[in-house]
Amino acid sequence: MSDLAHKLKNRALRKNRIRATISGTAERPRLSVYISNMNVSAQLIDDTVHSTLATVSTIGSKAATGTMTEKAAWIGAEIAAKAKTIKVTKVVFDRGGRKYHGRIKALADAAREKGLEF
Predict the structure, then answer these.
(1) What secondary structure does DSSP assign to the chain, as a single string?
(2) Residues 22/54/96/21 CA torsion (nearest 10 deg)
(3) 3-113: what CATH class?
């Protein structure tokens, strides 16, 4: 198994382990974060009815510029603003199997600054 395949397999196992315990509700939706090598996206998901309440992505967005960490911080601020419009203040953070540092931390800190609690 190559190093990359091993890394991706381990991330998938971590993601499944996290998702076994984390679940979003209408009062506290799940803030799911996905970071690729070029883009960042975040969704607020209600797992009880299997619906996405709000989503923000850098794909096709002219406002998201700069480094990937700056894009992640912008996404955090935007998802917090959308959460306010649908009257959500508390969320469950789903980091998608990634470590809580760098881009994930920048997104979470920006969302907390704008009023989300998790």
Answers:
(1) --HHHHHHHHHHHHHHHHHHH----SSS-EEEEEE-SS-EEEEEEETTTTEEEEEEESTT-SS--SSHHHHHHHHHHHHHHHHHHTT--B-EEE-TT--SSTHHHHHHHHHHHTT-B-
(2) 0
(3) alpha beta
67's tokens: 């480094």
Domain ranges in the chain are: 3-113
* Torsion angles phi and psi, residue 114, rounded to 5: -85, 0
Q: What string of pLDDT tens digits covers the 118 residues of the chain?
A: 899 999 999 999 999 999 999 999 999 999 999 999 999 999 999 999 999 999 999 998 888 889 999 999 999 999 999 999 999 999 999 999 999 999 999 999 999 999 999 9
pTM for this predicted structure: 0.89
